[in-house]
Amino acid sequence: MSYATLIVEANAQGNKGVTLVTLNRPKALNALNSEVLRELIEAFAAFEADPEQLCAVITGSGEKAFAAGADIKEMSEKAAADFYLEDFFAAWTSELVKKVRKPWVAAVNGFALGGGCELAMMADFILASDKAKFGQPEINLGVAPGMGGSQRLTRAVGKSKAMEMCLTGRMMDAAEAESAGLVARVVPHDDLLEDALKTAAAIASKPPMAAIANKEMVNAAFETTLELGLAHERRIFQILAASEDKAEGMAAFIEKREGRWKGR
Ligand code: CAA
Fold first, then answer.
1. pLDDT-based confidence at residue 252 (cuts at 50, 70, 90)
2. Ligand 1 center–CA 187 separation, angstroms
3. In terms of CB atoms within 10 Å, which end of the chain has fewer, N or C?
4. pTM summary value
5. Is 14 among the catalytic positions?
């Protein structure tokens, strides 16, 4: 399928099972308008439905930005009633976060501001270029985060830093984002895409059902109490123990060979 605002490549750059989704509005610093939102939802639904594709990477085109936020020009035309009646931004969380069970990684190659930072935080983890900059500058526009920034940033970096960033609108560089726990790793800018694709390929080479289960378990930590989370983890572990890939994975270890996964 072709898209107007995205470039989507399955088995990207020869990496089997890895889908690369590139936000492709470089002149607008990949600002997220309704068309991007709609196409991202379609692209991720296609990724989720394709049994050959096991991990996705999302990144931004151009030299400067992952995404500089929701599209301010589009939002400037909307009245409060439009935002409310369309339940603006709700689809992101339901379609990209809840419905995509396979892992996906954000490779943040520059500005990740407002909705761009929020999109990166919807991914399972973030790899950042050393030129990346994160921020929630919505206060400068007379608004506030609308795609999860106040909640996900606070969970990622704690109240004090999240509050400071939302109230001042200042940007955080990659080193600060790594030390604060917002990103998994910082990579030299020119190596980011290759590193992200390699990381995704490593994930795609794992037993696919176990990958989905690991993601589900970690995400449960944000939604529940410790006791319920631990019980949930044990149940999923016990279910995985009945899988063909568990028998194969343990046999492969003992026989000192690579596992051959069935995804069952
Ligand atoms: N929406 C629409 N267009 C945007 C945009 C955005 N969020 N960010 C940048 N652009 C456009 C600019 O208007 C400009 O277009 P023109 O050439 O047609 O004028 C082009 O991208 C290049 O931008 P700049 O000239 O501003 O580039 P710069 O290097 O001087 O500055 C920047 C870069 C600091 C990122 C600056 O563009 C900026 O501050 N952007 C806005 C960041 C922002 O406020 N994001 C939050 C949006 S609100 C939101 O996301 C709500 C939410 O929570 C869901």
1. very high
2. 24
3. N
4. 0.97
5. no
